[in-house]
Amino acid sequence: MKLLTAIVPCFNEQENVFDFYDEFVKNEAFLKSHDCDFEIIFVDDGSKDDTVARVKELKTKDSRVRLISFSRNFGKESAMYAGLSASKGDFVAVMDCDLQDPPALLPEMFKAVTEEGYDSVATRRVDRKGEPPIRSFFARQFYKLINRMSNTEIVDGARDYRLMTRQFVDAILSMEEYNRFSKGIFGWVGFKNKWLEFENVERKKGETKWSFWKLFVYALDGIMAFSTAPLAMASFIGVFFCIVAFLFIVIIMVRQLTVGDPNNTVGWASMVCIILFVSGVQLFCVGIVGQYLSKTYLEVKKRPLYIVKEEL
Ligand code: UDP
Ligand code: MG
């Protein structure tokens, strides 16, 4: 008998826990017929509502339900890592609690892994129906930018919903970095991967935990985790300004030695502009270096990715 583990990160998802369970167990017959059992690990990411109580209630009815509860909100990335570490399955699926990752796709994903020889099956939504247009616009620009800057392919519209083999999961667990960006990590480990496409499903109950600002910061973290291009850019800007400065020095010296400068005092305004601009560029570049330094600082501290308060 094989085992499939479903990992469900939950942050204030009290309205969705039961619905998710009901929807998920519809796959039971299919899994049984393929000689596969399942366990569901709900990872409570420091919810302030009744999520934990509801998962416990489920557990009394179905012993295949497991709970890992964090001491506070550590973020979805940490929740996924905790779930992966605790998973026992030969196959592991990561899925959202809000049913935006349709459990009905599992049979198809399962077949791709068991019969078609794939190591992982990832999902991708082909549209962004129901999302604010501004958010979609920035999301698209982000994917364009990060793919230009990073060697790891990061697919537009890719969800974290994925079915993986044990080998794939172990590869992901071996990446213990503190600044986790799963979209990049999944791509980085390699293996044979199949993409399943589906139409965007809107969240039915509760609301998204991602504000625009949270997504923006996450996007920057993603770029810094999978590309050092901004650091190189800082050097290029530096070299560019050195060349410009050198040309100016030559031009000014030649002019001074030949015709001279009859209006020595006129250049004040342009001088101030140049000084302000160049110091702005310098601070910007120092800022980029600072960002990488701060990431390195957090990485070096080796703090745990999460702290478990309760495990059932
Ligand atoms: N989530 C989490 N920790 C967080 C934020 C979100 O565990 O800090 C979970 C959330 O409960 C859900 C999944 O991650 O199961 C995706 O979150 P959400 O649906 O809010 O994001 P969206 O689908 O809007 O991108
Ligand atoms: Mg969602």
What features would you highlight for this structure?
binds magnesium ion, 312 residues, 2 domains
Which fold name corresponds to the CATH topology of the largest domain? Spore Coat Polysaccharide Biosynthesis Protein SpsA, Chain A
What is the helix fraction of residues, given as a range? 40-55%
Q: What CATH architecture of the largest domain do you see?
A: Alpha-Beta Complex
Anisotropy-based shape = elongated
Task: Give start-end ranges of low-pLDDT stretches.
Answer: none
Strand content: 15-25%
- N-to-C span: 23 Å
Structural domain count: 2
What is the ordering of alpha helices and beta strands?
A: EHHEHEHEHEHEHHEHHHE
Mean pLDDT: 88
What does this structure look like?
This protein is an alpha/beta fold and 312 residues long. It has two domains: 2-210, Alpha-Beta Complex (Spore Coat Polysaccharide Biosynthesis Protein SpsA, Chain A); 226-301. It is 50% helix and 17% strand. It has eleven helices and eight strands. It has helices at residues 17-25, 28-33, 51-61, 76-86, 106-114, 133-149, 166-173, 182-188, 212-226, 229-257, 268-301, and strands spanning 2-10, 36-44, 65-70, 91-94, 120-125, 158-165, 193-198, 308-311. An eight-stranded mixed sheet has the order 7-5-6-4-1-2-3-8, with helices on both faces. Strand 2 (36-44), helix 3 (51-61) and strand 3 form a beta-alpha-beta unit. Helix 6 (133-149) packs parallel to helix 9 and helix 10 runs antiparallel to helix 11 (268-301). The longest helix has 34 residues, at 268-301. It is elongated and about 90 Å long. The mean pLDDT is 88.
